[in-house]
Known about the structure:
About 40% of the residues lie in helices and about 20% in strands. The protein is α/β, with parallel strands linked by helices. It folds into two domains: about 15-80, Helicase, Ruva Protein, domain 3; about 90-295, Rossmann fold (3-Layer(aba) Sandwich). The strands form two sheets. A seven-stranded mixed β-sheet has the order 5-4-3-6-7-9-8, sandwiched between helices. A two-stranded antiparallel sheet has the order 1-2. A hairpin with a 5-residue loop joins strand 8 and strand 9 (about 290-295). The longest helix has 15 residues, at about 65-75. The termini are far apart. The model is unreliable at about 1-10 (pLDDT under 50).
Amino acid sequence: MGNWQRQFGSQLRVADLLQEGTTKLQDGGIAEPRLNAEWLLSNLLRKRRAELYIDELEKPTNSDVVTKFRALIERRLQQEPLQYLTGETEFMSLPFKVTPAVLIPRPDTEILVEHTLQAISPEKAIKILDIGTGCGNIAISLAHYRPQVEIVAVDVAPEAIQLAKENAKINKVEKQIQFLVADVLGEDFVAQFDSKFDFVVSNPPYISEKEFSTLPIEVRQFEPAIALQGGDDGLTFHRRIAMVTSELLTSGGQLFLEVGYNQSQMVQRILKKSGFCSIKTFRDLAGIERVVTGAVS
C-alpha cells in the first residue's frame, strides 16, 4: 500500500491521522496544511480545534473516522473550500452554516457590517433592508449587535433563504428578521415592500466577466457564480441597487455597499447620479476602499 493507505501500527491515533492529513495537504500544495487538517479532523470528531491537543491526540480512531477524514482530505486537494467541507464558518464572531448554495462570508464584509453598526443608534428603532443576504451573515450580525432593529433580508435563491433562516435560529435573532425570496433585478422589486427603510445594506456580486476567469479554482469552480458575477464591468447590481433604494429609503436614509478593488470611484459616481448625497468611503485593513455609503435627502 502507498503512504496514504499505510497504517501506523494496528490502529491510527488521532495524532497519526492528523499528521497524515497534514503531509498529504502539504504535498498537494494546499496553503496552511496543518490548520486545514486540524479543522477537518476536529469537525469530524465534533471537537474544538484546541481540544485535539488537550486530550485527543493519543486516542485511537475507528475505521469510519479514518475513511471519512481521508475522503475530506482528497476533496480539499481538489480545491474544494474548507468551509464547504466542514459546513460552517465564523463571521463577526458568530457561527454560520454554509453550503455551496451560498457565498462564503469574507472578513472584508465585516468592514461593511462594522460601519453600518456605527451608523445605527443603539436605542432607536430602525428598519433595514439587506439585499442579497446569502447565508444571512450581514442581516444576522446587525440583528445580533443591534437587538432593536427590524430587518428584511432578500435573496434570489430559495436555497440561500432557507439556509439564512437556519442561521438566524442558530444565532437567536429569527424574530428580528423577515426573509424573502426576491430578485433585485426584477421589475416588481420595489412593489414587494409596503414601507420604507432607514438603511439598505448589500454586498452584491461585483466580479466582472473578465475578472471571473482569473479567480482561484477554489472560488471559480465551487462558489455560486450568481453570487459573484456582476456583469460586464462588475457593477450591474450596484447600479440597480442605487436606483431602487433611492425609492425605498426614508428621508435621510442611508445605503451601505461593499465594492471591489478599484470600484469605489465608479460606485460613488453611480450614487451621485442616482441622487445620493453625503457620499463617503471606508477602507479595509489592506487600505482598499471597500465600502461606499450615501444618503437620500
